[in-house]
């Protein structure tokens, strides 16, 4: 029986669906207010994450930015077969960030970023009609990136960082081939990966700057995953070992970002970003089982590369108050025939608002909120992929993201 093992794919694969799906949003309250347009943004420690080259454009201050974020998705599903409408539980996904940077002298700057860039927590009613596909599915990641930058001149900098990623995934689904609703399968696993982030930053004038950064793809090698089957009838107990060892490789795609920043007036700064995410390595995922009749299970995805466009504006209202607004359009790499309820993805259009208040001479309070709408997606049968577990219907998704943080300079 392939279905229990193939269903594990939906959970583990989503850790590679960055461009649309489960990205927690721009990392940091200031960046969320700008819609994520940050590749050409200098003089902020978040450059360690967005563009290491911009980290070189620093003064002698130690700068720290720390805060928390939360993202909540609200998805509804309208079944094609039953016309029944089901709402996903709206579960906020908490995350956070820490950025720090310091100029060391002789053109060298150092930085550190700790971020939670990819996470989601999907929870459908345990008795819904798609319970044999997924009931609960979650992903959490943490990335730590030490960074070094060098200012070649006062107008040009380069930088690089090493990216350490830890991720863990979980999925719960009912074993639909049995009449008992309490017969289920739970898949869990965790893995670490290493990658790199490089970037360049330049200024053609005091008012116009550009940035280019590349974040490498990474492979999460899940070697100690488990597949646990519960309440299986005795007649089939031999086919569903209560605890089964599972291994798989999950690819996180690389991203290339290009950004421009134009200071229109001394108080108004406009930013634009273009990002291309490479999905070609996530064409398929293969699962390997040590104690199962099915030694391997392979699932094709055939993702397409995806683009994102981000525009942000920052206005210094007075010496103590800054206002921000941003717009984001993010393509989904997921084709209709692979839309699934663990995280139904779609092209995303989002708007952001943000502000900063000076609480002390060197301490700012940052606030931001983003509302996003995903394009309606319809999951359909794919006769060429009969092994794919799915349910047919239409998904609508809305995403709320909020962030609060503090910025210090010493």
TrEMBL record:
Localization: Cell outer membrane
Protein name: Aromatic hydrocarbon degradation protein
UniProt organism field: Hymenobacter lutimineralis
Matching InterPro entries: OMPP1/FadL/TodX
Record's keyword annotation contains Membrane: yes
Cleaved signal peptide residues: 1-19
Keyword Signal listed: yes
Homology family: Belongs to the OmpP1/FadL family.
């Amino acid at each position: 029986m392939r279905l229990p093992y193939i269903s594990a794919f939906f959970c583990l694969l989503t850790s590679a669906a960055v461009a649309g799906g489960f990205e927690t949003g721009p990392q940091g309250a200031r960046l969320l207010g700008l819609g994520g347009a940050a590749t050409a943004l200098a003089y902020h420690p978040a450059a360690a994450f967005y563009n290491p080259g911009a980290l070189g454009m620093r003064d002698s201050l130690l700068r720290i930015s720390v805060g928390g974020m939360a993202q909540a998705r609200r998805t509804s599903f309208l079944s094609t077969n039953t016309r029944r409408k089901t709402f996903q539980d709206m579960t906020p996904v908490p995350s956070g960030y820490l950025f720090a940077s310091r100029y060391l002298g002789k053109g060298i700057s150092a930085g550190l970023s700790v971020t939670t860039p990819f996470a989601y927590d999907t929870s459908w009613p345990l008795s819904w009609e798609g319970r044999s596909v997924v009931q609960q599915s979650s992903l959490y990641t943490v990335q730590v990136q030490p960074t070094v930058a060098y200012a070649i001149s006062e107008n040009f900098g380069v930088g690089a960082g090493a990216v350490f990623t830890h991720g863990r995934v979980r999925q719960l689904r009912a074993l639909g081939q049995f009449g008992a609703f309490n017969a289920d399968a739970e898949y869990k696993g965790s893995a670490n990966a290493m990658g790199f982030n490089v970037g360049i930053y330049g200024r053609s004038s005091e008012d116009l700057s550009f940035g280019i950064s590349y974040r490498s793809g990474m492979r999460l090698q899940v070697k100690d995953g488990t597949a646990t089957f519960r309440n299986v009838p005795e007649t089939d107990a031999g086919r569903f070992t209560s605890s089964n060892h599972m291994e798989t490789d999950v690819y996180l795609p690389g991203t290339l970002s290009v950004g421009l920043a134009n200071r229109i007036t001394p108080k108004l700064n406009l930013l634009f970003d273009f990002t291309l995410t490479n999905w070609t390595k996530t064409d398929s995922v293969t699962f390997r089982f040590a104690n199962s009749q099915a030694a391997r299970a392979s699932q094709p995805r055939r993702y397409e590369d995806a683009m994102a466009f981000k525009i942000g504006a920052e206005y210094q209202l007075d010496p103590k108050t800054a206002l921000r607004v941003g717009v984001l359009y993010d393509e989904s790499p997921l084709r209709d025939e692979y839309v699934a309820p663990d995280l139904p993805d779609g092209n995303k259009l989002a708007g952001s608002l943000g502000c900063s208040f000076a609480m002390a001479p060197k301490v700012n309070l940052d606030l931001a909120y983003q509302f996003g709408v995903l394009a309606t997606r319809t999951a359909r049968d794919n006769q060429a992929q009969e092994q794919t577990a799915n349910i047919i219907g239409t998904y609508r998704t809305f995403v709320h993201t909020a962030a609060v943080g503090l910025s210090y300079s010493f």
